[in-house]
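Lab notebook, page 48
Experiment: co-folding of the full assembly
Goal: obtain a model of how the components sit together before planning crosslinking
Operator: M.T.
Materials (sequences as entered):
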Amino acid sequence: MSDSAPRAAAVWADAVLAVRLLAADPAGIGGILLRAPYGPVRDRWLALCRRSLRGEVPLRRLPPQIGEDRLLGGLDLAATLRAGRPVAEQGLLAAAHGGLLLVPMAERLSPTLAGHLAAALDRGAVVAERDGLTLEHPCRIGVVALDEGVSTEERPPASLCDRLAIHLDLASVTLREASLPDDEPEVERVREVVAVRSDETVVAALCEAALMLGIPSLRVPLLALRVARAAAALAGRDRIDERDAGVAARLVLAPRALAAPARPETDAPPEPPAPTDAPEDRTASSDDSLTEIVLQAALATMPPDMLARLRDGGRRRAGAAGRSGAALRHKLRGRPVGVRSGSPRAGARLSLIDTLRAAAPWQSLRRAQISATDGRIAVRPDDFRIRRLKQRAQTTTILAVDASGSQALHRLAEAKGAVELLLAECYVRRDRVALVAFRGRGAELLLPPTRSLVRARRSLAALPGGGGTPLAAGIDAVRVLAEGLRRRGESVVVVVLTDGRANVARDGTGGRVQAEADARSAATALREIGLTSLLIDTSPRPQPVAADLARVMGAAYLPLPHADATALSRAVVATAGPARAA
Amino acid sequence: MRAAFPFSAIVGQEEMRLALLVAAVDPSIGGVLVFGDRGTGKSTAVRALAALLPPMTVVRGCPYNCDPTADAAACSAACPVPAAARTRKPSRVPVPVVDLPLGATEDRVVGALDLERALTRGEKAFEPGLLARAHRGFLYIDEVNLLEDHLVDLLLDVAASGENVVEREGLSIRHPARFVLVGSGNPEEGELRPQLLDRFGLSVEVRTPNDLPTRVEVVRRRDAFERDPDAFLARWRREDGKVRRRLEAARERLGTMPVSEHTLERAAKLCMALGTDGLRGELTLIRAARALACLEGDVEVGDTHLRRMAAPALRHRLRRNPLDEAGSTARVERAVQEQLGS
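Observation: model returned without errors.
Model output:
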């Protein structure tokens, strides 16, 4: 129908191949990251996965909210009490040993859960120290992570992605291409994957191609090598050849490319040669033609627009700045994330069931001690378990308003109108607002972070205008406030309304040159702490000085359109959007 | 469990390897924090070090790995070995490198009542936890930034006091728990609390090598190791042996290695120029430089040693200066240039 159909057919063919490769060496390959929306195509692919596993090999599903006790294993309380000795319960990871673990909604996987999976993949075993037991089980698994992320920002934790060799994207595949192979193949008896030999040139070519595609992790070429080895084993070869290296390039290297390769040997090398103690002539051992084949195989699978994007300076690396503050623990509010021992004081909430569970194994011991016979359960303070709750991070929007004379003349009233709209927006989202004003000789925190819309409105209405523009002082005040909020784990969005024409320096003296230099250094410092910020140029005509300041500050720049406060509000919401999602 | 990758077969990552060795020579330095890129062999290096360490002498049957030459009173009252028998027939055991897995519960870390004995015999007996197992060895925390806050607090407390105190079910146990804390993590997963940061003696930043020959060599060795671990280990046994002997020799020299007034002054000046908080930085710098001199077989501690250990000993103790765009490593290097010359 269109030219995308052959490409989609090729993508599907590779997806089918990926299943066979994973079945051949699940623990070596680590797994598959499948980016595809929920739908029939994905279902078909999953059916293939299941089919590849016939026999006793398990396919387990990881419930997104699984607790650590179920994942890692722990004390089986019922069996323990019945048997009168500690009985361990196997966790999900141990139960999946030898098979596949399906991770739905991987883009929502918590870093801790991803950390557990990564540890199991690295060690080939699950090790836990829980409930008075040391548990160690073999856990050689392949992980199939289903990524249903919609935007490019929504990605599964990088620690997991890095360890799954094959990355597939089935978004472009329709049901027409997604045909199931007719023959019901027997579970493939492939030759021993480890026995497949690899030439030095293959290792060198995969490493070089990965480097040229801008892939930093060293795990990737190693995984590519294992995929190539599995491909050779499937094809019945005892040595990796260029076709196998090509498979690895398509499935492992291409989806991770962060840069478009410079032409090999003709252009400058992609990276400046760093000093190394390894002999230089090693490069000579990499076969240039094989590297070229690998590279071409990788490039051929990339959609043309992706290649263009990479050439335009590379894909934006999803920064995780502020991630640590995205969720914080709270004693009273939020979603439960398990229990820990502790006393139910200082507002912590007792988890009754878990406390009783903790007390249960010790009952016979305690009864003997206190010679109690009334059948009551003896609970000690050591048994107390309190709930741990996780709260969505609070977002605070800091509004910094330039109330200087140059502002007051024409735009302050308008800016106030815009800010009021923003306040209403924040109120709807239950965000907090802080208000900083700068005029005359310095900056002032008019309103500490609050949820009260009324207070915010009142202090804004009472904001007087006039005087010089101590822009540096204003930005510094914002930074100090933002750093404090960040330390408490809050997400912070900064909105600065100014015309950018500073004329009061940090020390309070006048003079445009020093004032502007100070403003720039303050803006750089604000950028250093890595916040989402927006600079709204409030001058009648957009000023290059304000646009420049926004650039230094790492802020989005928006000239205030004449009296269009609605557009302004929309811009803030758009800027703040990604920060809230993080 | 798979066998550990040989320490001497690790390609590059000089600073990380050196910091681990230095921390192993002198446990009082306070451990190492390894922070950096994914897939740079952070965990590999730590586990490799474990396999390399020379065995230590312990009181036979003591669950707390006590040294037979140490004062018997230092050991826990719960130790089953009677004081008189402590010096008899000591055993040689590998230095413990204890993993603190993510999701470990508090009772397993500090120790708790022995569940088995409570259930089967109705006895109250203390079962030592990971902290006891790590005594005189290493405690390794992978993904240290994902560790639960309450466990972090607990570890900080024990690491500072060198003693673990447990109050459970009317039992009151205290036992020595001096260990070298080794943490690793990826800064993208979240920052480390400053209090924990400061507790590590040394900190190293690992980056992915970006020159092709090094990268090829890393993949080649790793692949060879995975395909035939025994043959690979055999090939590197000699090299690992050399490193082990160097480590042993360094430990013996540690007590007698002279540090001149001049060197102490230089270290103090460097720390002052950097404005590091407190004396901990200075002390760590001196100790690390001394351990390095021992490793290198030098006769006394000098500027060369200070220069090499300045970054790992000090970079995580700098106050953040938002007006300085350079990273902390560059700031330390600049100060070293100014104070010690090149």
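Interpretation: The two ends of chain A are 39 Å apart (CA to CA).
Next step: discuss with group before ordering constructs.
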